[in-house]
Amino acid sequence: MSGHVVVIGGGVTGLSTAWWLRREGVAVTLVERGIVGWEASGRNGGGATHAYSPLFREEQRLWPMMDELLGYPTEYQPQRIRIALDPAQLEQYWRVTNLAVQQGFRAEALDAHALKELVPWVPDSVAGGLLWHFGGHANPQRTVQAYAWAIEDLGGTILQHTAVTGFDLRGDKVVAVQTDQGPLGCDAVVIAAGPHTAQLAAMVGVTVPIAPARAEMIVTEPLPLIRHGGADGNGLYGRQTLRGNLAYGGGPHEWLELPDARTPKAVNSPVVRSLARRLHELFPKVAHARVIRSWAGVVENTPDGRPILDRLDAPANLVIATMSSVGFGLSPASGRAIMQLVTQGRCDFADLSQLTLSRFAGLPTDWQARNGWVPWSPDGAEGERGPARADAAGPLSASGQAQAHS
Amino acid sequence: MPRPIDRTSVAGKEFPATDHLQLVVLGAGPAGVAAAVEAARLGLRVMLVDEHPVASALMGIDVPWMFGERMTASVQNQPRMLERIVAARPELEQAFEVGVDVRLGVYVWAAFVTGPTSRALPCRMLALADETQSWLIGFDRLVVAAGARDLAVAFPGWDRPGVMGAQGFAAAIGLYGAFAGRRVVVLGAGVTGLRCVQQAREAGIEVAAVVDVAAAAHEEFATHGVTVHSGCAVRGVEGGAEVEGISIVPVGGGAAVTIACDTIVSALDTVPNVEMFDLLGCAMAFRPEWGGHVPVTDADGRCSVDGIYAAGDCAGIGDAEPRDPALAASSGREAARAAARDAGFAAPAPARTIRTHGGDREARRRHWLQVHAGPAAALTICRCEDVTLRDLLGVRPPRYLSYDDAKFAGRDVRTLAGDGPVNQDQVKRLTRAGMGPCQGRRCREQVQTLLAMQGNQPSGSVPMPSYRAPLRPLPLSVLSAHDESAALRANWTGWFGIAPQWLPHWEKVPENPEYWGGRIFLDAAK
Ligand SMILES: Cc1cc2nc3c(=O)[nH]c(=O)nc-3n(C[C@H](O)[C@H](O)[C@H](O)COP(=O)(O)OP(=O)(O)OC[C@H]3O[C@@H](n4cnc5c(N)ncnc54)[C@H](O)[C@@H]3O)c2cc1C
Q1: Interatomic CA distance for residues B252 and B73, integer angstroms
Q2: Does B477 map to a domain?
Q3: Among all residues of chain A, which has the CA nearest to that of B422?
Q4: How many domains, in total, are found in chain B?
Q5: Model ipTM?
């Protein structure tokens, strides 16, 4: 393809797309509102095991090569262990395992003894586990920068601190992308703006159903390395990093609304204590490991939880790319697929027929409310709830109680 | 019709709290105790929380202050330390008398308030912990009187046991009475160093010398009869496992001198302890004349977040004269009055304390780092993660990774700055500087200064790296939600509850929009 492609969004989806386009020699400019990978792409669990995805095979093929292809370390580690504390968990993990096995991948059942050999921290009462000879994990923060540097090494342009504000259309094509730093002429556009993909697509009259939500994780101090860092279970996803830290997430998310073009700073909630509890249950032998940080990120979700990777009919040179909350691990593959949608209109290595935007044509407009995928507050109030005030709450009790200190 | 709720989300989930306070005061230093006492007198139900005595294991990793492994074994006896601290802070007696719920040896490790990404929270909450468990309390208002932290600045040997901070030193001899040294060298000939000398003298500890890179020293050192080596840099710390001395050399060149000592107190400056303000989302500003990042407040200590007040050193540290506890106490009283009035209690109008500051302290920090960090690329900057100055400024990956050094030849903080202002959180992600168990306490400020210096920028141009919960490194067993609600447990999912997300891609999603969200599927699965 000749011409200039503008990729909107410097998360993993946009970064990988721009990188693949440069590898094909396409002129590309990536536009990022802030710093690359600042949103979900730099705040996720780093898991790269998505057996239900049409991009699974490509995800598995590419990851072992990524450090070499990019030229910078991603901390990719192959394989994953699922740990079940009870038979119900084991059954659940088998279901996913079978999906991969059906596609020709290999998995091993681990009894409690074998599991303890590999992950010495599990409880004696552990039900069992599975060793997957597929899947893996990488360091998201290192990976986003690796993509960005690799794009620059190939002569691509990354504009950080530049926000897209609109589009110029001529006929059925986008001819320029407007940014707060000026216009960028283009021959094709990819919108890969995570949760903001909907707002941007709306500017060209395209409805993309995405609901944003907040999800959180905790991380401990480093521990001695176990054989396969990608060991998780008990309702948690996560990994031991190559440095030795335990980084785990899961549990209740919070649905949000994005009132404007910015992503609000995602905060942690008391759920961090529940994450600690599950990690403690999973690895009781390292109950002493100190939690040193937590964080949260804003993820994008489509109504059926599957990505939207689609080159539209109108505007005809626009590709919509959003991964529905499992976009990190799939990014090497998603970027390649999106590159092909841009350069040849179709993906030749994976069946993307389930990932079209048109599948949501009949979606009721109140789909989010119907599912409860909307912000919720105890009193139904919209605004912030500040501290109680005497005038609002009546006179406050004035009993200073003496209590023994502990 | 009831609003549908996503049961796998936080909507409607309860987080059991053991109590609900009208006012919580964080920190039982002079400002915090005065705030708690004043608020209780004005009729509020008050809890005063302070982390001391902290676990000796935390002291071992310089949390919350740089203790430099110079505490005696007596700190392992927490009940005794508790008695000691109550004795060292006689003003606590008043707090007990007026009915303040005083909690000592309790960490406040997080605060949760409603905001754009946390609407579902039942009420404002603080997360507390002692050595065995954590719990939540509800609160209306919070006076943060979290005091000051040590400023860590690198010099050859600064990462050795036996090198401590001014706050750690003060606590070792005062609060804990557990200092394991006899003869100290104080680094920093300003007011912070001066205070250390005074404290040492009062405790009968010998001060061998005071050293500073600056040509001028505070005039009061003369009255203490202590030798001041002005215009000198640290060349190294002498000794094997134990510090035996410090070797210094004139900045402009000249003969090195070795001074015998068993402890080195790094007392260039202290910084406001602002972690809680950042966690709460309060607006912050970089004010070098107040010691660094401080919360933006009105004259009565009100922060930008409703119901949060700043008092004492954490609101900004004046540097014009050694700190006066009476000044801190009066700022605590003012914050308490402001909180009481805001809560609808009759309270006298706050009498505004005039605070003084001593000009740009960032210049002194830069001078120190220029002298010590300039020529020594191998100098360790982040001790937990073993990041050297070269690694930091060259944005190198950590040592445990193998990488192609040639690829990094053209990459450093300056080239990163070509793509936008240098961001400390971004450099942290790449180099791991500040990512270790001490939670950045020993490198945060110096990394900020070094990044700014490298980019020829004012230090305030580097955005403050974020603080994260838990504000103290606490074990999994302690943080664990032993009191978790049954609904939360029953509806726990690893990753959302969107059923069709987990269907193999070759299976079509049933054409039922209710199903798409996954709710119907969940019901069917139960
Ligand atoms: C806690 C957590 C754990 C997760 N765990 C995993 C996991 O283990 N495995 C996995 O595969 N996935 C995981 N995910 C999901 C994954 O992180 C996301 O699916 C993925 O990062 C999405 O990438 P993206 O590039 O599509 O979007 P984003 O990362 O959201 O990037 C979009 C970018 O677009 C930019 N942008 C928005 N609007 C504009 C504009 N107007 N102009 C310019 N730029 C704009 C934003 O600034 C942002 O950088 C997790 C997510 C979270 C939050």
Answers
A1: 42
A2: no
A3: A35
A4: 2
A5: 0.96
